[in-house]
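hey can u check if this looks right to u? its 201 residues, i copy pasted from the old doc so theres a chance i mangled smth
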Amino acid sequence: MIRVLLADDQAMVRGALATVLDLEPDIEVVAQVGSGDEVVAAARQSRPDLALLDVQMPGIDGLTAAAELKAALPACRVIICTTFGRPGYLARAMAAGAAGFVVKDAPPEQLVEAVRRVHSGLRVVDPALAAESLATGTSPLTGRERDVLSAAKDGRTVADIAKALFLSDGTVRNHLSSAIGKTGARTRAEAVRLSEERGWL
């Protein structure tokens, strides 16, 4: 049996995924959680062979949860399953140790096949997303630029961002300026929007 942990903040989606997987004779859903913060603890308790993680969840996101899970239980394989098929998410998922990346609007049989293939040691990536990722390229943002842009999402002032990230105002301005230039944006808000659309944040 392939033991699977599901993490998705939408209960209906999580339930539907569990139903699809539990119909298979060789797959068993052993744990379900609704936030990224719960993934590692649930995995330690249920010892899954594979975790199917959404990207956008409360607490930590699925990409961060994937990295934490790989550190805590290296044998557990990870598939990112998301509504948001953004090229930057694919690169970040692979960097976090995920072995698969599928989009939720794929047919159920594709998801089942992805689970089996990843469990067997292969990598599985949505082909359209892989092509788009190659065309878009990797994120030009440094880790700190990404932190600063993420902190700027809700319209915080430079002083507020600096305080939250323990940086000086000047350092925040430099990172914002650099991020705006790298994204080809005209404003901080546009840089945030473009980075989110490309999956860089």
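The radius of gyration is 18 Å.
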